[in-house]
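Why this split exists: single-chain examples teach little about how molecules sit against one another. For that reason, every record in the complexes split bundles all components of an assembly together and asks for one structure covering all of them. Below is a record exactly as it appears in the raw files.
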Amino acid sequence: MTTTASPASVSLERLTKRFRTPESREVVAVDDISLELDGGSFVTLLGPSGCGKTTTLRMIAGFEAPTSGRILVDGADISRKTPDKREMGMVFQSYALFPHLSVFENVAYGLRLRRQSGKALSQAVERTLELVNLTGLGQRRPSELSGGQQQRVALARAMAIEPRVLLFDEPLSNLDAKLRVSLRAEIRRIQQQLGITSVYVTHDQSEAMALSDVVVVMKDGRIEQAGPPDEVYRRPMTRFVADFIGRANFLEGEVQSSGEDHAEITIQGQPMRVPAAPGVRPGVRATVVVRPESVRIGSGDLRAKVGRSTFLGPLVEYELMLDDEVLLAVDPDWMGKGLHQPGDEIAWSLRPDQAYALPPSAADELAAVDPDAVPVEPAG
Ligand SMILES: Nc1ncnc2c1ncn2[C@@H]1O[C@H](COP(=O)(O)OP(=O)(O)OP(=O)(O)O)[C@@H](O)[C@H]1O
Ligand SMILES: [Mg+2]
């Protein structure tokens, strides 16, 4: 298996999918989304349950026909093609292996459908098994493998046909936490080695950040924000995105003045210069997104009581009791500074350059967020 000469670019153009439920209710699963995927990029669809991730992926794969909109690969419309003509490989949450076939035959399946046989076939299978670190296990049945090994077989089966696009639907969620982390690193390694354009569905934000060139945060069938993980983390466009990617505090502030991408905002009685989204103007109350690691513990002009302190090893997590809210802070330098206990009065400050101010319109949205939308680490 060699590096794909020219990785496929994929465009989603105003894709919409409506379902009619048995009670004749209409569900808009995917609502007019457009997205450009560069060739060779790893793109994650991230969002709460029911936001339309799987439906989007199934439309790309050809298992579901769009109600409207188009899917292009390298500029050519493939919307009418059947799945087997799309040159895509898909990996599912439930590995969906053939239980009666050996590992070798599972991986060979797609190649046999494409009329490959003999030495070329066995070489292709062996190469793929080697790529996913399963050399020597070809003769086993899926039932004779661990969950992580089975998922590697599923990955090998999807890759054996040398697809132009790889699609993943929560492939790691049946595995325990350690295995998830090591297998996701392997998926990333293989994807980069081969340069296959990949679309990966997950509701695990740490998985999305670790894997992706581009994270697409979805909500209610729509794209809330798409961008590189660090950008989405640093400059979330809505309160929903800030809350879904990582953890965030939201502090209210009075906007005094504003420039192109900054604003002077009074937060907790202190004037600060904060990077700001469009729409943050004097006279409005901004919502300032503050990541826990951007709260400085033990120095500064502000004072708060420690409500809760959780020791996590590399860092300590504190809840600081402000007048009208609780601020989450993490201290990576507890070894240097010592630990604080609940009830301690401490000094603190913000790193304003690491905060991000949102206008009221982007912040109001939280009212519409349902409780399921809280990012959940899958159990295990
Ligand atoms: N065949 C169908 N018939 C009717 N409604 C459907 C069908 N498939 C999906 N839906 C609905 O479309 C919406 C999006 O579903 P989808 O499976 O794409 O969500 P998801 O983001 O993958 O969620 P999860 O994280 O739970 O897997 C949901 O409201 C779902 O109930
Ligand atoms: Mg799904």
